[in-house]
Write a structure and sequence with these properties.
Blueprint (H helix, E strand, L loop, with lengths): L2 E5 L10 H12 L4 E8 L3 H8 L6 E6 L8 H22 L3 E5 L5 H13 L2 E5 L6 H7 L4 H16 L2 E4 L2 H11 L5 E3 L19 E7 L8 H13 L6 E4 L5 H10 L3 E3 L5 H8 L2 E7 L12 H8 L2 E5 L5 H8 L3 E4 L3 H13 L9 H6 L2 H12 L2
Parallel strand pairs: 1-2, 1-4, 2-3, 4-5, 5-6, 6-7, 8-9, 8-11, 9-10, 11-12, 12-13
Helix pairs in contact: 1-15, 3-4, 4-6, 8-13
C-alpha cells in the first residue's frame, strides 16, 4: 500500500478547524493507503484519540509540544528547528511516496519536506495558507538579508512542489509573480471550526451588536478599529462591541472596555465558547491590512459565516477580502478610514438588517469534511 505523510504542527484536538480536517483526511486515506501524521501534540494525545474513537488505521509520529504563544521567542525558534529536524528524520524513517505539508510552521519544515523528496525522488503537495516571510515583513516593516534568504528558500520549495494549494486568486497571483513561473496551483478556502455550525432546529436570540473573535495583532488594524468604536460611542452610538482572543493589542482593548459599558473583553476562549459568542451577535468585525491580503486571508472569516454573523470587513476595495464578502453577499465593507468605519456603525444601528442568508454551496465548502475531501482529491492527482 502507498504511504502518504501529512505534516503539520496544527492538528486535532488543539486546532478544531484545520486540525480536524487533517485528522479526517488521514482517517479517509487509511481505507486505501498507509497514512502517517507527523505533528506536535499536547500531553495525553493517545488517550484523547482513544476516548474519541478517532485515528483508526493512522500511524502517528509525534513530538511533544514544548512552547505556547506566550513563550519566549528564542524558545519558539528552537522548537521550530527541533520540529523541522524531527520531520526530516521521520520522513526518512517511514519513506512515504507522497507528502502533504502546510505553512505551520513556515519555511523550514516545508524545506525539510523538499529535501527529503529531492533525496528520495518523492512528490509533495505544498499548502501555502500564509506566504512567509512576506507576511511577517508587513509587521516588522523591514527587509534585510535574512528576509531575502528565507524568501529564496521558500520560493525554491514552492517551485519543487507537485501541487501548490493556496486560499485566494490574489495569493495565487502573488505566488506566480514570486516564483516567476506558472505552477499547478489549486485554490482551497480554510475550513471553519465545526462548533460554529448552527443547528437548524434551534432558534438563536441574536443581539444587534458587533463581535471580534481572533488574534488582535498588528495586521488587523486594531488601533483604527478601537478609535472608530470610541468615536462612535462618544457620538451617542448604542450598539455593543464584544472582543474575544489575545494579541499585542489586548491591553488597548481592555482599556477601552474599562471606559465604555458597551465594550466587553472576554479574553481567550476555547473554540466551542468562541463559537457560542459569535452566534450571539449580528455583526462580525474583520479588519485587515491591505498589503497582507497578498500573503494571507483572515482565518476568522469561515467561522463568522458559519455562525451567521454579517461580516464587517475593514479594508481596501481591491482586496480579496472585499471581493469575497461582496461576491458572496456576506456583509459590508468599509474603507480603512475613520469616517467610513464610524459611518457604517451608525448605519447598521439605524437600519433593520435581515438575517444572513448564506449560499448552501459555500456553507458546505467551509466544513472540515469538505476540506478533507478536497485535500484527498488533490493528493490523488
Amino acid at each position: 500500500m502507498e504511504k502518504i505523510a501529512i505534516v503539520s504542527r496544527s492538528f486535532w484536538p488543539e486546532n478544531p478547524a484545520i486540525g480536524e480536517a487533517l485528522l479526517l483526511l488521514s482517517e479517509s486515506l487509511g481505507k486505501d493507503a498507509q497514512p502517517i501524521v507527523i505533528t506536535q501534540v499536547a500531553k495525553g494525545f493517545p488517550e484523547k484519540l482513544q476516548m474519541a474513537k478517532r485515528g483508526q488505521g493512522v500511524k502517528f509520529s509525534t513530538l511533544p509540544s514544548l512552547t505556547n504563544s506566550s513563550s519566549h521567542m528564542l524558545l519558539r525558534i528552537v522548537e521550530l528547528l527541533t520540529f523541522t529536524v524531527f520531520v526530516f528524520f521521520s520522513l526518512c524513517w517511514h519513506r512515504p511516496s507522497k507528502v502533504y505539508v502546510a505553512t505551520n510552521p513556515p519555511i523550514f519544515t516545508p524545506l525539510a519536506v523538499r529535501l527529503y523528496c529531492g533525496l528520495f525522488g518523492k512528490k509533495f503537495v505544498y499548502h501555502l495558507q500564509d506566504i512567509h516571510p512576506e507576511a511577517t515583513q508587513v509587521v516588522t516593516g523591514k527587509t534585510n538579508w535574512v528576509e531575502r534568504l528565507l524568501r529564496k528558500i521558500d520560493v525554491k520549495t514552492t517551485r519543487k512542489a507537485a501541487t501548490v494549494i493556496t486560499l485566494t486568486e490574489q495569493m495565487k497571483s502573488y505566488i506566480t509573480q514570486r516564483t516567476g513561473q506558472e505552477l499547478p496551483i489549486v485554490l482551497l478556502e480554510n475550513p471553519s471550526v465545526q462548533g460554529a455550525v448552527q443547528e437548524t432546529n434551534v432558534v438563536i436570540e441574536r443581539k444587534q451588536g458587533f463581535v471580534y473573535c481572533g488574534n488582535a495583532g498588528r495586521l488587523q488594524r486594531i488601533p483604527l478599529l478601537l478609535a472608530a468604536i470610541e468615536r462612535y460611542l462618544n457620538e451617542g452610538g448604542q450598539l455593543p462591541f464584544v472582543f474575544a482572543g489575545g494579541g499585542v493589542y489586548r491591553g488597548a482593548i481592555e482599556k477601552l472596555a474599562s471606559q465604555f459599558e458597551q465594550v466587553s473583553y472576554l479574553g481567550v476562549l476555547p473554540a466551542d465558547q468562541a463559537a457560542a459568542v459569535l452566534r450571539g451577535y449580528s455583526f462580525g468585525l474583520m479588519p485587515i491590512d491591505d498589503e497582507v491580503t497578498n500573503y494571507a486571508f483572515p482565518s476568522k472569516s469561515s467561522s463568522y459565516v458559519f455562525s451567521g454573523c454579517h461580516v464587517i470587513a475593514i479594508c481596501g476595495g481591491n482586496t480579496s477580502v472585499t471581493k469575497w464578502v461582496l461576491d458572496n453577499g456576506l456583509g459590508f465593507v468599509a474603507e480603512p478610514d475613520m469616517d467610513a468605519v464610524v459611518s457604517l456603525f451608525h448605519k447598521l444601528e439605524r437600519e433593520a438588517i435581515p438575517a444572513l442568508n448564506v449560499d448552501a454551496e459555500l456553507f458546505e465548502k467551509l466544513t472540515p469534511q469538505a476540506h478533507a475531501a478536497s485535500l484527498e482529491q488533490i493528493l490523488n492527482l
